[in-house]
TrEMBL record:
Protein name, per record: MBL fold metallo-hydrolase
Protein source organism: Streptomyces rectiviolaceus
One matching Pfam family: Lactamase_B
InterPro entries with a match to the protein in the record: Metallo-B-lactamas, NDM-1-like, RibonucZ/Hydroxyglut_hydro
SUPFAM superfamilies, per the entry: Metallo-hydrolase/oxidoreductase
Classification of source organism: Bacteria, Bacillati, Actinomycetota, Actinomycetes, Kitasatosporales
Domain Metallo-beta-lactamase: 28-224
Coiled coil: none
Length: 247
């Protein structure tokens, strides 16, 4: 099957020949997929095991030839981004340093938060019980080679929206710009949410690091909402700096 057709048929938005994303229903969390010559990276796991399984199945359809997701990046430890991780058992999982410990200690809180936001209690409990933790912890930057000349850079840019914010940079090519998956450091469909685990004083600096990764011409993929440009990220940085009283 033609790869471009496969993205569309699977309900994904194609951002580059080898990169796409999907806005998941209900919580509008964005998942991403980067396709290499021999490997494939999924970004985010969804809010439930069912969502995670749907993402993995859709990726197999896009990849074709019996290929599957081999790597999973979790941008931060909120339920709508991580609770589907057990559906990716057997893949290499990446997160910001400290994420593994947090997911162990915060398992009950994750489950409770999911239920508060509308996940069925049984589904939330099952996902939390089976939650897959990161095998690889990113402190600074980590380059993944997906084969076929496709590399991605995982960057620990937080704290900000949470204490463990990871961004994913897909370098540009002659035919496509840099693409930065921002997690919830950037939100387009609503105001950025600052929960109890946010680090407001450092959030603007995390956005500065995102901008330095992607540059002026990159596409920035927020955790929720439409793809934005550097000007949008700068404007959101200014709003957050004013909101939290930092420069």
């Amino acid at each position: 099957m033609d790869v471009a057709l496969a993205w569309d048929e699977a309900g994904w938005e194609r951002l580059a020949p080898h990169v796409g994303r999907r806005r998941l229903p209900v919580w509008d969390c964005t998942a991403g997929l980067v396709v290499g010559g021999g490997s494939a990276l999924m970004i985010e796991a969804g809010a439930t095991l069912r969502e995670g399984a749907e993402l993995r199945t859709q990726a197999r359809g896009i990849l074709g030839g019996g290929r599957r997701v081999t790597h999973l990046a979790l941008t931060h430890p909120h339920f709508d981004h991580v609770l589907g991780a057990a559906a990716f058992a057997g893949v290499e999982v990446y997160g910001a340093v400290g994420l593994d410990t947090l997911l162990v200690k915060g398992r009950d809180e994750l489950r409770e938060d999911a239920v508060r936001h509308g996940v069925a209690p049984d589904a939330a409990a099952e996902a939390a019980d089976l939650l897959v933790h990161p095998h690889h912890l990113v402190c600074g930057e980590w380059t993944l080679d997906l084969g076929g000349g496709v590399q991605v850079l995982l960057a620990n840019v937080g704290p900000g929206h949470s204490g463990h914010d990871l961004a994913v940079l897909v370098p540009g090519t002659d035919s496509s710009p840099e693409i930065v998956f921002c997690g919830d450091l950037v939100e387009e469909s609503g105001e950025p949410q600052a929960g109890a685990d946010a680090v407001p004083k450092q959030w603007p600096a995390a956005l500065d690091r995102l901008l330095s990764l992607g540059g002026d011409d990159a596409l920035y993929v927020p955790g929720h909402g439409a793809v934005v440009d550097a000007a949008f990220v700068r404007a959101q940085r200014a709003t957050l700096a004013a909101r939290f009283g930092v420069s």
